[in-house]
Amino acid sequence: MGAEINTLLQPKGIQPIPPAFSQVPYDVVNQVYYANTLPSSVVSIPNGRIYGEPEHCSIIAPDNKLIWDISWSGEPTVGEHWFFKQERALQYKETAESIAILTIPWICHQNYYHWTLENLSRINLIRKSGMKVDKFIMHPRNLRFHYETLNRLGILDEQIIEVNQALHLKANQLIVPRLGMPPLLPPKWACEFVRKELFTSMEQNGKYNRIYISRGSAKHRKIKNEDEVSQFLNHLGFQKITLENYTLNEQIQLIASADIIVSPHGAGLANLIFAKPGTKIIELFNPSWAIPLYWVLSNWCNLDYYFYIGDPVGSPSFPVRSDMSIQLPQLKNVLELAGV
Q1: Cα dihedral angle (35, 39, 42, 48), rounded to 10 degrees?
Q2: What is the pLDDT of residues 68-115, one digit of tens each?
Q3: How many structural domains compose the chain?
Q4: Beta carbons of 338 and 236 less than 8 angstroms apart
Q5: How far is CA 320 from CA 212, 266, 313, in A?
Q6: Which Pfam families does the entry link to (predicted)?
Q7: Which of 130, 280, 312, 329 sits between 20 and 30 A of 71, alpha carbons compared?
Q8: H helix and E strand count, the chain
């Protein structure tokens, strides 16, 4: 994709800007962000092979060498890669078709943000390359959003090969799209592509102007005093919603119609790409996982972004999963700062 320079508006809140926000690679003086200048590419490998299962993926050249930088595995070095430990490594099937790779680590495949903005956006790279694709390889589709988004993109069931324990396939052309992006920092073109493909004009009449997105059904990053927070926001005209209870169409409709969105950090905020310009976003963080992902996305989508850092609850060994509690007077101050 072509290089593009963008100016980021500073995040707003009543607390100091989280350290992770200041670590985003942009020029401090001019506030010019360079994430979009990182190169994306599509690699075509004649007679290439894919060898994988849910937790691993190996791309293998015709000379039987592992292509390390476009394979992924949990091992830190090439020599430790799981591919070299498998007995079936030399046993494979062949196809005369062109096969595109849309596999990502399993934990990301199960996550709406990673699936939507880090995986589906790679289809744009393939389309722009002009390469012919007969089928796509991806992990098993076990969640509703897998089916809903692929349907919107026009990818048919018969075009999909799902990874299983026995997958080892040699293709006439193996096509591997690569995103040029830092982790959890989506480029602007990816947001624009997914919005264009998934959003339609029929989904512009929503129900609520003010919504609070709950993580009550999530396993982690919950708001421990959510009943109190929800009641407080309800008095200000906010409707509490749980995105998992809605279809993709309904989620798009809800986000596109909202003027103000309050939400804890979570994958569902990937839907902010469907918000109309000027929508006010108040993102709630636990103090151990305050990252700039949706601040950057809000900039790309011309949204008015605010943040609030709650109080930690417990001492989890995995900070990304920490729960939080919210101080209502401070939340009230953030809302007032946003003009609510």
Answers
A1: -110
A2: 767 766 555 555 566 666 655 568 899 999 999 998 877 888 999 999
A3: 2
A4: no
A5: 21, 10, 12
A6: Glyco_transf_61
A7: 130
A8: 10, 17
